[in-house]
Design goal:
The structure holds two protein chains of two kinds. Helix content of chain A is 15%, strand content 47%. By secondary structure, chain A is of the alpha+beta class. The chains are: A alpha+beta, B mainly beta.
Chain lengths: 133, 318
């Protein structure tokens, strides 16, 4: 019985400590103190290309708090598009060594994060032409 | 105890024989047929196995024809799988597979004289399969017909990145989707030879707008008991995969039919309990939709353990 009593006391004490830990005044800044970055433009150059070609994607973004920005790149290329490299706000897009019978109309997404919970996403349309160059 | 030897040996053998490797190198499909086995684990017996697989792809095919690949694309897949199967009650067993995968793909952008390498690593999607013996193996018939139902859970990562760049889903450790498996298997044991046949169908589902093609794998294997400890096996294993479906419909360069010749060697280190196996899969027929990387060869090494917990089985030794 003593063991049960000790366990109950331990659980109760732990709960109080855990709950009180979140009530202090030394909390880190919350997301509401931070302002997310904004994307002013995103471009693909070229935006229409053949299999095997490269396309340069550039995103222009700013952060109102002056935070350093991280760039994340995605696409809806469905086994046709592949990323080749990235440097800062620029990424190089290429294609698989496969075949397609219809032009692929899709888009590329860039997500900019400030490392404090703020982020912004924008997209640009690209077209991969069927057949080889 | 003798009964355990007779019945457990083919069960353990079947845990690793067959078409587990019969996949295009960077296919996200997970092992289902070979490593999961085609027989039901014995009651109160744990069958555990550790597999290492190496798959390599270097040739590109259009249809059944090998074509030049100026991009010099090369892909490899190393995988370690832990499989556990337990006989819950007579005729019914449950098996699970936990994979750890490392995938790599490199290609050359010859128009721009640039090389690119993508690589991912991590735990893949786990599989659980329940199996029921319609015809149960006994001392008399040495035959089993079993059906199985299971699922593949999306436990593997699908968001691996390279310096902020997304990596294609086919190179991710997981597929993101819940898939469902159904299997049918046949085993017939003779004095010197075991015959094994089986098929597994994987019904895939969609994940974030993309669905990998459904998959049927099949195998036929003959296992010769060469000596008391050494078995030699020869078999054929095949895989048929449908086209993937993306946001804009079927993805042209996906889906294939591959048939592999599969010689194997099995050796019992500790008779009845510990067995080592090696398999080599060599493609004898390959047909791909569109243009795709084809399999060069697949290798697999396995260590299998069989641990009976049942006293009843031991008493039967007499």
């Amino acid at each position: 019985m003593n063991v049960v009593r000790c366990f109950v006391v331990f659980v109760a004490a732990s709960s109080v400590m855990l709950l009180s830990a979140g009530c202090g005044s030394d909390d880190p800044p919350t997301a509401s103190d931070n302002h997310p970055p904004t994307i002013s433009s995103i471009t693909a150059n070229p935006s229409t290309f053949h299999l095997g070609d490269l396309s340069t994607i550039t995103v222009t973004a700013t952060d109102p708090d002056g935070d350093g920005l991280q760039y994340y790149w995605d696409h809806r290329g469905e086994s046709v598009l592949e990323w080749f490299s990235s440097t800062g706000n620029t990424a190089i897009l290429t294609t698989c060594g496969c075949l397609i019978v219809d032009d692929l109309h899709t888009w590329v997404l860039a997500t900019v994060k400030d490392g404090k919970g703020g982020e912004a996403t924008d997209s640009v349309a690209v077209v991969v032409l069927a057949g080889e160059q | 105890m003798y009964r355990i030897i007779i019945l457990a040996a083919p069960a353990v053998l079947l845990l690793v024989s067959g078409a587990a490797l019969a996949q295009n190198c960077c296919s996200p499909a997970v092992s289902q047929q070979g490593v999961l086995g085609e027989t039901t684990a014995l009651p109160q017996t744990l069958e555990a196995a550790l597999h290492y697989e190496h798959l390599r792809s270097r040739d590109k095919y259009e249809g059944s024809t090998k074509v030049d690949d100026p991009e010099k694309t090369e892909a490899g897949w190393d995988r370690v799988l832990l499989t556990l199967a337990y006989g819950v009650v007579p005729r019914v067993s449950v098996a699970a597979v936990v994979p750890y995968v490392r995938k790599e793909k490199s290609w050359y952008l010859y128009q721009h004289d640039l090389w690119k390498v993508n690589q991912t690593e991590g735990f893949g999607d786990c599989i659980v399969l329940a199996r029921f013996s319609v015809v149960e193996r006994t001392f008399v018939n040495f035959r089993e017909v079993a059906v199985g139902l299971g699922f593949k859970a999306p436990t593997g990562s699908t968001d691996k990145r390279d310096a902020g760049l997304s990596i294609p889903l086919e190179l991710q450790p997981g597929t993101g989707s819940w898939d469902y498996l159904g299997s049918l298997s046949f085993y017939q044991g003779f004095k010197k030879v075991d015959l094994i046949a089986g098929a597994t169908y994987v019904l895939t589902t969609e994940y974030e707008g993309y669905e990998f093609g459904d998959q049927l794998s099949y195998q036929v294997t003959a296992n010769l008991h060469a000596t008391g400890r050494l078995d030699l096996s020869a078999g054929l294993s095949g895989i048929v995969r449908g086209r993937d479906i993306g946001l804009s419909g079927e993805v042209y360069s996906t889906g294939q039919h591959q048939l592999f010749a599969v010689p194997g060697v099995h050796y019992q280190i500790i008779p009845k309990f510990l067995r080592l196996q090696a398999f080599f899969e060599y493609p004898v027929y390959q047909h791909f939709n569109g243009r795709q990387l084809a399999g060069d060869f697949n290798l697999r090494f396995s260590a299998s353990f069989s641990i009976p917990f049942s006293h009843e089985e031991v008493i039967d030794d007499e």
